[in-house]
Design a protein that fits this description.
47% helix, YacF-like, 2 domains, alpha+beta
Length: 250
C-alpha cells in the first residue's frame, strides 16, 4: 500500500514539507560517506528556507496551545485514559516551551556562522560547492566521519524544537481521522465534505499493484480524486474503477 497525503491549507502544507526534510536529515546524518553529509547540510539549509516565514514559529505555538485546550476538554470522559491524556499534554507543553525559547526563526543561530552561510549561498548553484570555490568546505568533507556527524548534529540541534513540534502536531492531526473504504467510478471519485467541520488533511492509501496514481484536489466543500496511469512519457487518466482507503483529518 502507498500512502498519499493532501493538505487543505498552507500551514499544513508547510508542516508536511518540514517533516519530509527532517526525515531525510535523520537518514543522512548517521551515514558515513561525505556526499551523504553534503546533502544533510543542504537539507538543513532547505529547512531554514521553508521555515523562514516570520509567523511559522508563532503558528506552531498556537497550534500546540489549541491542541492542549482540546485535550483538556476531554478530562472526565470515561472513554479517555487520564494517564495518556497527561502524557500527551506534557509533550505539548514541552514542545511549546522549547519553541518559545528559540531566538528568532528556526536556525537563527546558524545564520551567524559566516562559514556555513558561505556554503549556503553556493549550495543552490549547480556545481557551486567544488573544491576551488569552497576549499574550506572541501577540507571539512575530508574530516573523520565522527567529526562531520558531530558538527551536523550540533547544527541540526538548533532545529530540533521545530522538528519535535511538527512531528507531534501532525501525529495528533492524523490520529483525528477515521479511515473509510471507497471506490472510484471509472477512475474518478468525489465526495462532499460534511458541513460544520473544517478538514486540514486528507490521507489516501491505495494498493500499488493497481498501477494507478491518485491526483488529489480539494477545498472546504469537497474532495476529488482522479486516478492516473503512467506510461513511458506522461500520466494518462485511468478509466478503471479502483478501491482505496480515504481518511479525512480535522
Amino acid at each position: 500500500m502507498i500512502l498519499y497525503e493532501y493538505p487543505f491549507n498552507e500551514r499544513i502544507r508547510t508542516y508536511l514539507r518540514l517533516e519530509h526534510l527532517f526525515r531525510r536529515l535523520g537518514q543522512l546524518v548517521p551515514r558515513s560517506h561525505a556526499v551523504d553529509h553534503h546533502y544533510a547540510l543542504a537539507t538543513i539549509f532547505e529547512v531554514m528556507d521553508v521555515s523562514a516565514r516570520a509567523d511559522l514559529k508563532s503558528d506552531a505555538m498556537k497550534d500546540l496551545e489549541k491542541q492542549k485546550q482540546l485535550l483538556n476538554s476531554y478530562r472526565g470522559n470515561p472513554a479517555i485514559s487520564e494517564k495518556v491524556l497527561d502524557d500527551v499534554i506534557r509533550q505539548l507543553d514541552g514542545c511549546f516551551s522549547a519553541l518559545n525559547k528559540l531566538p528568532g526563526k528556526a536556525g537563527q543561530p546558524l545564520t551567524e556562522n559566516e562559514w556555513l552561510m558561505s556554503i549556503r549561498s553556493r549550495v543552490g548553484i549547480p556545481g557551486g560547492t567544488c573544491e576551488f570555490d569552497l576549499p574550506g568546505y572541501y577540507a571539512w568533507q575530508h574530516r573523520e566521519t565522527h567529526e562531520r556527524q558531530a558538527d551536523l548534529e550540533r547544527w541540526a540541534s538548533t532545529l530540533a524544537p521545530l522538528a519535535e513540534s511538527v512531528h507531534l502536531l501532525l501525529k495528533l492531526l492524523r490520529d483525528s481521522g477515521t479511515p473509510q473504504k471507497v471506490v472510484s467510478a471509472n477512475g474518478h471519485f468525489q465526495q462532499t465534505l460534511p458541513s460544520g467541520r473544517t478538514f486540514q488533511l486528507a490521507r489516501l492509501r491505495i494498493d500499488q499493484h493497481l498501477g494507478v496514481v491518485p491526483e488529489i484536489s480539494g477545498n472546504r466543500l469537497m474532495i476529488s480524486v482522479r486516478l492516473m496511469r503512467q506510461d513511458s512519457e506522461r500520466m494518462q487518466p485511468s478509466t478503471d474503477s479502483a478501491p482505496f482507503e480515504l481518511t479525512l483529518c480535522s
